[in-house]
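quick one
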Amino acid sequence: MEILHVSAECYPVAKAGGLGDVVGALPKYLNDAGHIAKVVMPMYRTKFLYENKWEVVHKGSAYLGNTWFDYTIIKESNNKLGFDLYLVDINGLLDREKVYGYDDDTERFTCFQIAVVDWVSSWKHKPDIIHVHDHHTALIPFMLKYSYPYQQLAGIPTVLTIHNAQYQGWMDWEKSDYIPHWDGWKWGMLDWNNAINPLAAGIRAAWKVTTVSWSYLHELRQESNGLESLFEYEKGKCVGILNGIDTVVWDPEKDSYLKDHFSIETMAAGKRTNKEALCEEFGLNPDKPLFVFIGRLVGEKAADLLPRAIGDSLYFMDQRMNFLVLGSGEPHVEAELADMRSYWMGYYNSRIGYNEQLSHKMYAGADFLLMPSRVEPCGLNQMYSMRYGTVPLVRRTGGLRDTVLDIGEPGGYGICFNQASVGDITHAVYRAVELYDDQLKFDSVRRKLMSLDFSWDRSAQQYIDVYNSLLS
Ligand code: ADP
Ligand code: GLC
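structure w/ alpha-D-glucopyranose:
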């Protein structure tokens, strides 16, 4: 079968977080399973765009409200990613450096979705499934069902995967004419609390909805930024499918970002070499346990708790450990994490910004990874860290609950806690230091981590089952 993924991100073309990783990996695994998976995304001005060869496959035009716009679809010529990759070029609107964060994001992503639907309507053989991701593409299931110009596509089954329900893409009703001429009787499908809510519209209009872990699906019915009753009402069409990780990109034996590779057999020495290099770079002591945090510095990740949790751990446990933070996000958290450097010099350091290579070096060189998230739909960091023999410290929520088992339980391999609070994080750090001091146990936990299988194989099959259920 042929599946078209529509997404705002796809690694390595453009990535702001885990969505990019998932859309860059899942299609490869669907192809390996004998299907044809393609990805279409906006054409941003990224390095990948300039470094690769492209051919024009389609040109078209459409309306956004009263504004006529032209779009061009280009295709990467050498199948570099292991699947067909298409970019939508809309002059002046999508071709920017960042993926999100512009005042006209509503216009940008609505035009993108219209261009995709318009383009697909020109295909001779239509895709069997259209799979959209998050609110930036969640109006597509509605457009296919209820926009008159695209009625010929109404029979194509749609799947909406929710990676993060916090962001819903809210639009003023004044912008309702952005959506290509649609059946006015269906306004209730778009509305949530007197605004157009693309995510809610996607949940209602998609044939099937998936979330990126089982626990997250369950939690959304209790807490989903206002959509709780909708998740309860639509539970029959929702299913949780845990993300996998791309074990080719994330492979400690071959990782192109690392100088020193290691396997499960050479784990202790290999990680030590990586740790020494990292500690050297950041002025830390490699003989102490190294805790890292990698991620968006936002409330969902509980990044605001890091300064106190790190300060308290260093203070109350006599600087028996080191911390290194990599991330960007809320300005006050960035500032606090930068300011702390001089106070805890030699024990703590941070790099504010986004740095793919450094993240790989940190997964490889760290002893422990902190993830105290308040909300974590799936979380990939903990899976990357485990693949690199780094013990995750996670709050029991969403995908973290589904992927990490506490060392206190039979067969356990991580450190789990219940609250996103300074006290719980500090206590988890204390337990981690105890584990580190018991070298034999520490090594056996790390080897266990490296033997776990978080690859996409199983999850890709679950998506295929979902697609098949819609086609039969
Ligand atoms: P989310 O998508 O909510 O940010 P995930 O755990 O699913 O969380 O994925 C985060 C991805 O982004 C991982 O690949 C992680 O390594 C990467 N990442 C996050 N922040 C940074 C950063 N500052 N530099 C490099 N990589 C980062
Ligand atoms: C979102 C979630 C994260 C998840 C990622 C990929 O960004 O916040 O938990 O891992 O999407 O699905």
